[in-house]
Amino acid sequence: MRPTLLPTRALPLAFLTTVALAAAGCGSTGSTPAAQESRTAPTHPTATTTPPGAPQRLVSRRYGFGVTLTRAWTENDARSPWNGKRLEGVESPHFANFEDPTGRTLVAAAAPVAKGTELAKWRAAMVRAAPSVCSESSSVRRTTLGGEPALAWTAACSDGYHVNKIAALHARRGYMILLPSPTANGVAKDRRIFESIRRSFRFTHQ
User: Fold this and answer.
1) For residue 201, what are the contacts with CB-CB under 8 A and spacing of at least 6?
2) Cα–Cα dist 140/89, whole Å
3) Three-state secondary structure call for residue 35
4) Nearest partner of 153 among 165, 163, 145, judged by Cα
5) Three-state DSSP class for 69?
6) pLDDT band (50, 70, 90) for residue 51
């Protein structure tokens, strides 16, 4: 508050005293200066919620593995065992499904394999097990899954999905992990998400 200044000689003493008191009152309440009042004002606790990007650990009890995903993902574990013969849709009761709101679905299953089965042969079997609407990439990348050697590749499907895939062997079982995603989500972003999932993957039993 800035009062209009007038020549002091023309003003009565009582009026000047009133103006001074009013000016002092603009920056404080009662006898507490404004700066001190700001420091001592009570604070109210702010309600906190778990951000949607916060991580969570999701586990497939049937297939013995866990992955770290954000809170946006939901889980449906497999309800019955997979025979390893055919890659089925995301609604299959034989696959564990982890889905996010964008339409990405992490699909995973494992099946017993014969002793001495080689990783390359398991991967070849998974290529043959793919649905006919998908074209498998001939480019294969060596990597790891839960500390085990693994082979990763991609597929493009005529139903509008791009799929990241990885195959591994562990404890006499062949594992197949897929991330089908609508192509509109972006191939590069899908790859980054899949790599994050792969790095977080852990086997929960031997």
Assistant:
1) 65, 66, 67, 145, 146, 177
2) 23
3) helix
4) 165
5) strand
6) low
Report the distance separating Cα 160 and Cα 183, nearest Å. 6
- Pair type for strands 65-70 and 202-203: antiparallel
Residue-wise pLDDT for 134-192, tens only, equals: 999 999 999 999 999 999 999 999 999 999 999 999 999 999 999 999 999 999 999 99
Q: Is the pLDDT of residue 202 over 80?
A: yes
Q: What is the pTM of this model?
A: 0.74
Q: For the chain, list the domains and their CATH numbers.
A: 8-40 (no CATH), 55-203 (3.40.1000.10)
Could you give the 3-state DSSP secondary structure of residue 170?
A: strand
The 3 state secondary structure assigned to the chain is CCCCCCCHHHCCHHHHHHHHHHHHHCCEECCEEHHHHHHHCCCCCCCCCCCCCCEEEEEECCCCEEEEEECCCEEECCCCCCCCCCCCCCCCCCCEEEECCCCCEEEEEEEECCCCCCHHHHHHHHHHCCCCCEEECCCCEEEEECCEEEEEEEEEECCCEEEEEEEEEECCEEEEEEEEEEHHHCHHHHHHHHHHHHHHCEECCC
Cβ–Cβ < 8 Å for 160, 187: no
Give, for 80, the enclosing helix (H) or strand (E).
none
